[in-house]
Amino acid sequence: MSVRHYVLAATDGFIELPTSPDLPPVGTERRKVYVFGFVGGLFKVNNKVINEDLNWTNPSNWPKFKDLIGTATIPSPMVWGETGDRVYITLINLGMPTAGIMDAHTVHMHGAHVATQLDGFPESSFGVPMWMDFDKAPPVATYLFDTEHPGTYMYHCHVEASEHVQMGMYGALVVYPSMKSLELVGIRKLCNGSWVYKGKLQDHISETATNRNFAYNDIRSYFNKEYIMLLSDIDTRWHDSVQTGGNFNPIDFKPDFWLVNGRAFPDTLLPHPLTPIEGSNKDVSQLNYESYVHVKTGELFLLRMINMGYQVVPWHIHGWHFAVIGKDANPSPFLKISETLGLHAHEGLERGFTATIGSGETFDLLIEAEDKRPQYRNYIVNGQDCISSLCNQMHKIKNIDPNVIANIPTEPVNINNIDTVNYVDICDEPSTVNDNFFPQFYPMHNHDDYKATNNGVYPGGQLTYIQTDAPEQKCEKKNHGSCPENYCILGI
């Protein structure tokens, strides 16, 4: 059990949204939008200080807090803990000086089991007033969240929520199982790194896995990688009105930008500015807001879907069918049912290719990047049923109009040197390189397809990619005649 203490400061700022489907430097025209948000992050874990600059009790830090005014972005910092942790969030109100707004603010931990006084709903509890004099300590409130249940949550300001949530005051909140809670249901990690469930070895679980490779206290919730997909929508007229002191009526809400983790396509393909640098302290962030999903064939990956927008999102994933393993921080009842019935893998679970996510809902979608090489190879590379291979067909199309063959950015996308892959080029590579059809790129997007635009310009909005790479080459030592040799076998 740990005590995790976060410090969040409410302020305003600006984001820039793309107005064309082109990546920089081509897509340089941007729409500047005024927003509210929280800045800050993890202050300390137990008695270990992670970021001394967030110590609001130290007068030498008060000028640093003042410098944070006007730096808000969307989304707000990630908050996470493990089952049994006590998570504290201290809120400081820096105000919204750009618009001259002096509103109080709160933190509502959406879905948490907390007392009314900690709920952040000001009509039944309280708000935190603005810090007016930076020569004196700020007024603060510290919220407590006992992490009773693992799952995907969110947090947001609940003061005049119709406006403050639209303006961007929200972030992701995730609770993982602990090693202790896993052991209580029979999931244990042995000293040699192997994992067992009720005494049975689990070969599919990596020796490097931790309790944070499980979404719930259930063996079937194991994943190799995870991604937050925090969905929201923006009506720029509303934001402009708040900035200029107008009188926008919320019932006139009509969004013109749709966001994934605070960004619209094609920015969703770029590295996220809130992701900590590689090698930074693991306590700073277990998760990040990267929206470009990059996995290897054979991996299990978890999409933590969060809808903070005001519209229902039919989230559609190309190429894969997902298993719904949880909703609103509750494990799917089908997890236990399928185990009781003795079903394999994720048989018996609710499955689909489109998840309809209402405002304020979360879904945990688990996807296996299945090895589909046999199916892909026959048609894409070899051809079948007297039909020419897709590679040959694309070569003919390229000769007619090369512009219709996609150049798709690969991860990580570097603005100064954007790496792209062209499917015709892949077809020209020898089969020993990557089996001719890797990497694969699968879009996922809001299937209200007009919301995959930026103010009506397609493609844009709530759209991003899943990149799947070829299976890893694994080497085996075999006897070949009288001489032992090493053979690398793809995906074996």
From TrEMBL:
GO terms for molecular function: copper ion binding; oxidoreductase activity. It holds the Pfam family Cu-oxidase_2. Residues 78-177 form the Plastocyanin-like domain. The keyword Oxidoreductase applies. Keywords: Copper, Metal-binding, Oxidoreductase. It comes from the Bacteria. PANTHER family: FI03373P-RELATED (PTHR11709:SF394), MULTI-COPPER OXIDASE (PTHR11709). This is Multicopper oxidase.
